[in-house]
Amino acid sequence: MSKLPRLVITLAVVALLAVFLWPIWQIVLYAPQYPDGVKMYIYVDKLGGDSPGTLQNVNILNHYVGMKKIEPDSIPELKLMTPILLFFVVFGLITAIFDKKWMYYVWTLLLIVTFLVGLYDFYLWEYDYGHTLDPNAPMKFDGASFQPPVFGKKVILNFVVYSIPHIAGYCLAISAGLGILASFLKYKFSKA
């Protein structure tokens, strides 16, 4: 049983690797003119959609109400997330090898704090994106906010916007849960 924490932390690292395969988050916009929805995906290092022109279409829609153009190259988080997550992969594997109780605690705590900071940063980006509008926009809506939700559903004009985790986002949550479990098991077995 003493090898169980090592196995669980290794599974947490494997779950973390999902971010390099699938999107972390998705924002879907439904409207009468888009009954199938416009799907935008946030990956660890890029933005994409269900078609090659998704980002261009979102930028065209945003132009009418004065929202900033989404420029992936100008989003520093897309450059930072890969090294940050690779740090957690390496640290997690080192934790499994050396099997020190404090390493389990530090890995899990840092991972959870990083996720929470990431969600807050996402909120700030969306807030700025939805509130900083060009006063010369073709369409004006006094007092309107076009901020998408961080999580959940929101109606914005004639759009219904959903913002929810994608496959890798759920895998990140699983990774954190496995880190908590591994830390608990390490604590339990080290007291026996």
Question: What can you see in these coordinates?
Answer:
The chain has helices spanning 4-16, 54-65, 77-98, 101-131, 167-191, and strands spanning 25-31, 34-42, 47-49, 152-156, 159-165. With 192 residues, the chain is of the alpha+beta class. A hairpin with a 2-residue loop joins strand 4 (152-156) and strand 5 (159-165). It is elongated and about 65 Å long.
Mean pLDDT: 93
Helix tally?
5
Determine the N-to-C terminus distance: 11 Å
Give the helix proportion (percent range). 40-55%
CA-based gyration radius: 20 Å
Contiguous uncertain segments of 5+ residues: none
Strands across the major sheet, in which order? 3-2-1-5-4
Topology of helices and strands:
Layout: H1 4-16, E1 25-31, E2 34-42, E3 47-49, H2 54-65, H3 77-98, H4 101-131, E4 152-156, E5 159-165, H5 167-191
Antiparallel strand pairs: 1-2, 1-5, 2-3, 4-5
Helix pairs in contact: 1-3, 1-5, 3-4, 4-5
List descriptors.
five-stranded antiparallel beta sheet
Short summary of the structure?
The chain has helices at residues 4-16, 54-65, 77-98, 101-131, 167-191, and strands at 25-31, 34-42, 47-49, 152-156, 159-165. The protein is an alpha+beta fold.
